[in-house]
Please model this.
Amino acid sequence: MNIAVIGAGCGGQAIAGFLASKGNKVNLFNRSPERILPLIDQKTIELQGEIQAKGKLNHITTDIEEAIAGTKLIMVVTTATGHYDVARVLAPHLKDGQTIVLNPGRTFGSLEFMNTLLANGLDSDINVAEANTLIYATRIKNPGLSDIKGIKTSISVSVLPNHRTAYVISMLNENFPQFYAVDNFLTTSLGNIGAVFHPTIALLNKEKIKNQVPFDFYREGATRKVVELMEQVDDERRNIARKFGVEVQSLKEWLCERYSLQEDNLYDALHNNPFYGGLNAPTTLNMRYLTEDIPTGLVPFSELAKAVSVKTNNIDSLISLASKELKVDFREKGRNLQSLGLNPTTIYEDLRRVSEIETLQDYN
Model:
């Protein structure tokens, strides 16, 4: 298969290297040249850890048109805050039949992505999918050397238009049998557990992080007090989902299924997950656990909750604390209802319409 991977960070290099090692023709794109310059001559990505393989890339470029030309599948592996910019530059170059997969979409990634494509002149018949999470827990040891610390055993995926989900899953399963279909994008979007894990641990350990005190993010950062708040935030997320007729997994259920764990409670699932050990805490609060997971996770959770009168005191407190610490109005800059094209008074109808579209004409 001809595949483009958009983003050459930890996840992007791991996915590109794996796909190339399976015999696919893979193009790797990154917006800035610095990250990919060391790869241009060798064009090889080596995987170690849970996967032992090498993949030879077809082309490495900062030109988005070159990257996606002739490809069937486009794997977007950037932070969710980059989805808008990626969609904007992709829109003029997409061709009929191409499939875009957001790895991951976070909350309403596929909706934001499709809105942005259409606003920037998309006239091709394409599919936009969002994965619930990134398939690998991975770090770059050196340019072109990815350390795969863990592989999730199952990844839920939704697709716009929804009726093409089976087709997209079939294509993805050629390389990733872990991907499986869910009813619609509400399930993947409201199943965004990173928005619960990351901000809670980071903000309740903010003094350590600000003072650059080293600690294991999950093993030491997720104290019993932190886990207690995490479960309260998670209850709010699940209450929102139920209001929209969606049943999503709890944090404990999600961890145990994705990492094949057998634990009775969230605290033990976090601390006994072998793939979470040795992951160092960040040394600044100005990083993706807040700058990504707040605006593309907690903000849309809170916005949905307000529209349907669900209380989210804990979620709202985390948003306010992060906004204060980073001096950023995350509610204004995040995925709020206005930016997503949703009306709070017709929220049920709006979301149902999007999940049932058949063509781009229906979407418009």
